[in-house]
Design a protein that fits this description.
Blueprint lengths: L1 E5 L4 E5 L7 E6 L2 E6 L2 E8 L20
Antiparallel strand pairs: 1-2, 2-5, 3-4, 4-5
Length: about 70
């Protein structure tokens, strides 16, 4: 997995899996998903900081914390 934020353009790019993108789908004007043959390959978000998506906040849940 690779996450890159392009500050000058306010674009957040997340590569989830490597592989050839076989289909692109726009969820809205600023969110695009690229699909590989196996599922979601990448997600691109325009105006990421302006729309409140970046910076990312990732929560980790410990399996034995129950």
């Amino acid at each position: 997995m690779k996450i890159v934020y392009y500050e000058e353009d306010d674009i957040l790019f997340m590569e989830l899996t490597k592989g050839e993108i076989v289909r692109d789908e726009s969820l809205s004007w600023n969110v695009n998903i690229g699909y590989t043959a196996d599922g979601i390959g990448e997600i691109t978000i325009l105006d990421a900081q302006k729309s409140g998506v970046y910076p990312l906040q990732i929560e980790r849940v410990l399996a034995d914390a129950a």
